[in-house]
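[audit] Reproducing an earlier prediction to check determinism. Same input, same settings, fresh worker. If the tokens differ from the archived copy the diff job will pick it up downstream; this log only records the rerun itself.
[audit] input (151 residues):
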Amino acid sequence: MHDRGELSTLGDQTVPVAPWLVEVLAHVEGEQIAAITMDRYKQAELAEAIDKAGIRAPLVWRGQGYRDGGEDCERFRRAAFDGLVKTAPSLLLRSAFADAVTLRDPANNLKLAKARSKGRIDAASATVLAVAEGARQTARAKRTGGRIAWV
């Protein structure tokens, strides 16, 4: 995947978060970023890295459990079936989605999980978060003008 340009490596044992964020945002340089959506896991560490990298974009924190994950999985599923999710062929995404399953709780809520303990689903999780946030943003009512104030 590294040879195909789908996976970059940074650091020796751990990934330095701020330099990694700068590298990721270089892919969208010059574009308007509507939001950066991320998992709440290690939120404090990630928020520090975002400040250190000088990123000034709206941040959306989401959980991976049944509460947030259920909505995200459903919005992703709906967007995929409607043909709104398009990507170049990617071994990284293919292997990540092959290792991913959705679990249901007794209340029929969904969450994304690993199909096997050593599976890597980070790319699939990031894709689900991004597509779900895009669906939320497009579903919001657009403002058509100013407000009227009676004096």
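[audit] rerun output stored. Observation attached for the diff report: The two ends are 64 Å apart (CA to CA).
[audit] end
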